[in-house]
Amino acid sequence: MEHFADKLTEKLILHQIIKYEDKELYSYGIWQGILLLFNILTAMVISSLFGMLWQGVVFTVTYAFLRTHAGGYHSRTATRCYFFSILLLSGALSLIKFISWNNMGIMITLLLSGTVILALAPVEDENKKLDETEQAVFKKRTKSVFFILTILVLIANRIGLAAISICITVSICTSAFMLILGEIKNRAIKKG
Whose CA is closest to 144, among 71, 72, 69? Predict the structure, then answer.
């Protein structure tokens, strides 16, 4: 697949669509686009196998929205990331499908997950360190996204869309879980 990204970039250069000196940047961008598309297709297939396509979409969109700002655990390789993501999505869909959710369960999950998110976020990765300014910006964004998602959960619950509120709640809980894993990983790296 990386070979495909390189070949496509060479064709863009040949047709003078991009400059030769931008070859690596475009090749990397195309490769990342292919990976993103592959991951989205995989998520759709897994969600369909669970018989939960729209739930998978709601979970994935809200999870990505929060995770982008909050950070958390990252695998060391793209392959590990891919397989970990499959397990994570399968686990999340299982929580949505097989747990008997009620209003109290949703509120307790939001409270506990929110406490973790507000206390830990953002959790940086060893490959992407954050300076003080970035820490402050991402913390503020994480709080905003968390509160927006919480309001969406409450509104969805109030207007009878409990299934949507459950998907969003599980995405918030999963983000909190990833923050805890990221914090554990960072502490292990610091120890040695």
Answer: 69
172 to 84, 146, 176: CA distances (angstroms):
18, 8, 6
Contact 165, 157 (CB under 8 A): yes
| 19-75 pLDDT, tens digit each | 888 778 878 888 888 888 888 999 999 999 999 999 999 999 999 999 999 999 988
Alpha carbon distance 23, 46 (integer Å): 34
**pTM for the structure as a whole:** 0.87
Asked if residue 122 has a cis previous peptide bond (ω within 30° of 0), the answer is yes
Whole-number Å distance between alpha carbons of 44 and 168: 17
